[in-house]
Amino acid sequence: MLEPILASVRARLGDVVARSDEWRGAAAGAPPARDFAGALRVPGLSVIAEVKRRSPSAGVLASGLDPASRAVAYRDGGAAALSVLTEPDHFAGAPEDLVVARLAVDLPVLRKDFVLHPAQVWQSRALGADAVLLIAAILDDVLLRDLLGEADAAGLAALVEVHDAAEAERAAAAGAGIVGVNNRDLRTFRVDLATAERLRPLLPDGAVTVAESGVSDPEAAARMADAGYDAVLVGEALVRAGDPARLVGALRDAGS
User: Fold this and answer.
1) Which of 41, 50, 67, 95 would suit a FRET pair with 128, their CA atoms being 20 to 30 Å apart?
2) Are 108 and 126 in contact (CB under 8 A)?
3) Domain range for 54
4) Total of domains in the chain
5) pTM above 0.70, yes or no
6) CB 83 within 8 A of CB 50
């Protein structure tokens, strides 16, 4: 299920790379990045609340979602940071969603997309992102290190996402300072919270740790907090929630 997504990303990559100088110039003039890692290091369980219209596994989640009003609701509920899907073909996202969401609140914003080239890092900074997602499963060791270096040069935090023990070791070897464990198997899209529990002891000492996917209620959030995670990244449950601010608060309280 991952290959069609990556094929779409690669098909759009040429235009992004061709505009590399434009992205670097815009990044140089962008406001200072907000402290994504610092926002997650506070006591208790932090919530990274996601702006997402659809997913390949669940289909349409919220076709009429307004990124600005949703970002405000997440902030009002006590979210520590935002995650914004910008992949258009499979998640119905857009770079403009990130721009709008970031302007609406003062929270740091993670650009959630499939980064395969340094130009995408600089594009993310130019759009106003404060952090980028680097998925270990789609990057070899050299490219992962290179993209971490590019993110640092651009002034961005980087959340390195892993799915198994081998990827956790690779993230540590690459020097990742923020590591997320995705409970969703990207090959089957099956979700299992035990993945995060099993991998937590393998994550680098001192790294900010994030549990991703499958956290839909306070019980699941408490389980991730008990496993030792600093934060949870929550998308589908919050997008579907009738009162997203209240759910953010409940997730935070469950980890206190």
Assistant:
1) 41
2) no
3) 2-254
4) 1
5) yes
6) yes
